[in-house]
Design goal:
about 375 residues, alpha/beta, nine-stranded mixed sheet, 12 helices
């Protein structure tokens, strides 16, 4: 690609993948079919040492696009985790802005164009969070999770998440903006906190991608555990000891009480059982009822256009059960990470793990 063409790249789309052979083809296809002018954006697929058919699929696209006007790069790296893959994509990117999408997501045909319009509307550096819609609505469990917990969190907590976020590239003052310790989650939370004095994420609802939600309770609980685990890692990296201790005490209480209740029941220890139940009830009231968390969640689910106009009684208890169980797994993940830190005394302030070696298998640009 000549120098003039390089300057004209508005957005570098980075797709980080690890064993995504079931979904990658649809992902790349959606990026090649964008309405935005092909010479104005590039697609970079970073393969984090996949062991399935991911490499074959990506290389097939390299061959298919040899005479295409679309700018496509495929790079395979030594296994280093999601953050290392993201950093590699940024190093390869030549666009003025970078956008991230997961390998198991599909982009709306106007996704890149709507991001470009927003970036071109201002000279200020931006962090954009786009709309994330459900890719697997045929799954009843995925649909329930999406219409309740996922969209509730996107509306009230998360402005941007990893599968649909974009940055003005000048925000990255160093070559490793994502901390290599975040192997599969927490990477964007760390980066948003790192950049909070420079720019805050803003919503761009017209930039839409479709992404799957977990299709089973087991999958969803694993994601809740991971969120807690890497959430603790974010707090450890930034070294907020006071906040860590407060959060640890808060979360440990919710983990200990159900255990005590389970222990006291078979031993018929009435006083201990009553005491544990009362304390646990108080904790639940403070966490879910006093601040109206459950009420807000149920109201959100009820008002969601994808659900019926009535909240059935079994749905009420089902969502409440998922909320309590999900938070237990989240608390467990958080405390598990803290315990590992206290046992091993890993250093988060010292030298970061060296970035993975890039092996560029094919780079295909317009000459």
């Amino acid at each position: 690609m000549n120098t003039s063409a390089k300057r004209d790249i508005c957005i570098s789309v980075i797709v980080c993948v690890h064993n995504e052979d079931k979904t990658l083809n649809k992902c790349i296809k959606s990026l090649f079919e964008q309405s935005f002018e092909k010479t104005k954006y590039e697609i970079i697929v970073v393969d984090d040492d996949s062991s399935d058919g991911t490499s074959r699929i990506a290389q097939n696209w390299v061959v298919r696009t040899e005479n295409s006007s679309t700018n496509f790069t495929y790079a395979k790296i030594e296994h280093g985790g999601l953050s290392v893959a993201r950093n590699t994509g940024i190093l390869l990117a030549i666009g003025k802005n970078v956008a991230f999408m997961d390998g198991d997501a599909v982009a709306d045909k106007d996704w890149v164009q709507n991001l470009a319009i927003r970036f071109r509307s201002t000279n200020d550096p931006l962090i954009l969070g786009g709309k994330v819609s459900l890719l697997n609505p045929e799954s009843a469990f995925a649909k329930k999770i999406y219409n309740s917990f996922f969209t509730y969190n996107m509306k009230n907590k998360n402005v941007a998440i990893g599968t649909n976020m974009a940055f003005t590239k000048s925000l990255f003052s160093d070559n490793y903006p994502f901390h290599p310790l975040f192997l599969r989650r927490g990477d964007e939370t760390f980066l948003f906190k790192k950049l909070e004095k420079t720019a805050a994420p803003v919503r761009e609802p017209l930039a839409e991608v479709f992404h799957e939600c977990p299709e089973s309770l087991k999958e969803w609980l694993k994601s809740k555990y991971d969120n807690g685990y890497f959430g603790a890692q974010v707090d450890l990296v930034f070294g907020d000891i006071t906040g860590l201790l407060k959060m640890a005490v808060y979360r440990v209480q919710f983990l200990i009480m159900p255990v005590l209740i389970t222990i006291f029941i078979p031993f018929n220890y009435t006083i201990g059982l009553y005491f544990s139940c009362i304390v646990y009830l108080i904790l639940i009231i403070n966490r879910y009822i006093r601040n109206k968390t459950l009420l807000k969640l149920h109201t959100h689910y009820l008002n969601n256009k994808e659900t019926t106009s009535k909240l059935r009684i079994w749905e009420f208890f089902e969502l409440t059960f998922y909320c309590l169980l999900g938070d237990i797994y989240n608390d467990y993940g958080y405390c598990h990470r803290l315990i590992k830190y206290m046992i091993s005394f890993d250093s988060f302030k010292g030298k970061e793990r060296k970035d993975a070696t890039i092996t560029i298998l094919k780079k295909n640009f317009l000459s």
